[in-house]
Amino acid sequence: MKHPAKRFRSFGVAWVSSVLVVSHHFWRNFSKSTSRCCYYKRSIGPTKTCSIGWKYYSCPRPQSLRSFGSLYSTVLSFRCKMLHDAVQPQKVVENGHRFPRNIEFRSDKLGNFGGELMVVALEESQKQSEESLAIPSQLLDQLDKQQQEAVQSFIKETRFQGKLGSSQYQRIFLLGSSIRYIALYGLGKMESGNTEKIDVIRKLGGFVGQVAQQYKSFTSAGIWTSMGSSWKDEQVQALLEEVMLSLYKDDRFKKSPEETEAPNLKEVCLLDDDIQVQSSSVATRAKNVVSGIIMTKELVSAPANVITPTLLSQVAVQLAKQYGMEYKILDKEQCQQMNMGCYLGVAQGSSEPPQFIHLKYSPAQGPVKKKIAFIGKAITFDSGGYNLKAGAGSMIELMKFDMGGCAAVLGAAKVIGELKPPNVQVHFIAAACENMISGNAYHPGDILQASNGKTVEVINTDAEGRLTLADALVYAEQIDTMDCIIDVATLTGAIIIALGNDYAGYWANQEALAQRIETASKRCGEKLWRMPLVNEYLESLKSKIADLRNVGGRAGGSIAAALFLREFVKQSPWAHIDIAGTVWNEKQSAATGFGVRTLVEICESFSHEQ
């Protein structure tokens, strides 16, 4: 502890420095010329014109109260900017967590396993009267007498019945065996559907990671399941992904990360030599997908004073450079030239400049047979605007995740950059900005004009995501003739009420695209549910003074939002995925990385088409 006099002197120096900084900003703002460079929406008003656009205007010298407000905003922005400038893109993404990047995967017979942890995953018995499960004969045949006794004794002592998610583990000592830990995991009554199986398999992978966190000394884990050799590649991949993700720890923003020993797990072995892991690309693919998911999780979990539109664009540029993609970042002036009035209308309330992100992946060799676009909602912080998010349940403190769609798209870009799928060109697009309150912010009742010429009456400033996506959709369709355009967004609270936190809703304007999305989601295990495009609901979006309202009534809110977006797609096959309920795990207080797997599967489905 400092001596009191020294502490007082330090405080005095800091106080005087603050006064000097504040005074400098105050007089600089107060003495500005009468002409300030601002933007406003030309609407019906003093200019007596109905056209809508952007221009410079002159305004009087700010009043003292306004100067003080400007000063406060300047100092606050300065404080936030200090943290923002101190954190570089490479330090924000994939940095600061403990993650065993060198973990290896293989398959082998149980008798050849030389690791320390053996996990036995068993399905629930069909006979409810049994106090504990009988060990399957196919497992007994692979165990020596000593191992058989240890497993049988453990199952009986714990009365293990294989119920879904149930688990037991303990340390054991077997002469002549390397196995030091044995764990039991319940698979429940395995459903026939692939999505349901993958869900159970992911939980098994998470359990293996949990045990690795508990017993950090062991380096190798073997997994035997009663599924036998009926594993599909995507199921093996799901298991390996979840093992890696469960070992992930995010401590980027802690001054002193927790002084806990990191797990020492180096190898995961599937104890069935019929499952060819080492000789296939499944393990490599799993690692690539996990890298994209972790990137997405870290972007979403980072606070809004770090992940600003500018830093988000820097992350995108670094990603493009890393994988040899073309990239384009449009600033405010360039977006004005393209008449992106809806996007810029949302962005104008923030001191953070908007950044329109466009990356393009093209195969290194061979022709481009398919062209697709993934668009992500990129509101790096959503205050709700003048329809402020307030009161219990508003979740304003979590509105850093309102760029979860963009994060999923960039995570998919990373995976696609690693996998390098042939035949397909992919555009990754995001209109990044903040939705804030200020003297420049857009108001309820404003009329904005999108880049396709349609005008929108702003009924609610908290329905901003669809406004930014509107201009992004128009932009995507203007690039080229697209085989599909898919937008991903944390768009509506209504989808959470409809589907909860496990399922994302999706809408598609063509049956073939809907089927493609359905197949992709089932293959990777991400849960999506198709929602209807009810044309009758479009009536609620009609405005008496503009082409559209940005919200309808309370009923069918997520459907109305999808119908609004459809108005900005001319003829391309298009789908909208609302991930508002699935982007965040409240129990873990962490991002999920949802959407990356599905987008990658969709991309590869186009790549494999002849």
Automatic annotation (TrEMBL):
Organism domain of life:
Eukaryota
Would the keyword Hydrolase turn up in this protein's UniProt record? yes
GO BP annotations, alphabetical order: proteolysis
- Reaction catalysed by this chain? Release of N-terminal proline from a peptide; Release of an N-terminal amino acid, Xaa-|-Yaa-, in which Xaa is preferably Leu, but may be other amino acids including Pro although not Arg or Lys, and Yaa may be Pro. Amino acid amides and methyl esters are also readily hydrolyzed, but rates on arylamides are exceedingly low
**What Pfam family is a match for this entry?**
Peptidase_M17
Q: Where is the Cytosol aminopeptidase domain?
A: 460-467
Q: Which CDD domains match?
A: Peptidase_M17 (cd00433)
InterPro entries documented for this protein: Leucine_aapep/pepB, Macro_dom-like, Peptidase_M17_C, Peptidase_M17_leu_NH2_pept, Peptidase_M17_N
Q: Which GO terms describe its cellular component?
A: cytoplasm
A molecular function (GO) held by this record is: manganese ion binding
Record keyword Transcription present: no
Q: Which family does it belong to?
A: Belongs to the peptidase M17 family.
Q: Which PANTHER family match?
A: CYTOSOL AMINOPEPTIDASE, LEUCINE AMINOPEPTIDASE-RELATED
Protein's name in the database: Cytosol aminopeptidase domain-containing protein
* Organism name: Galdieria yellowstonensis
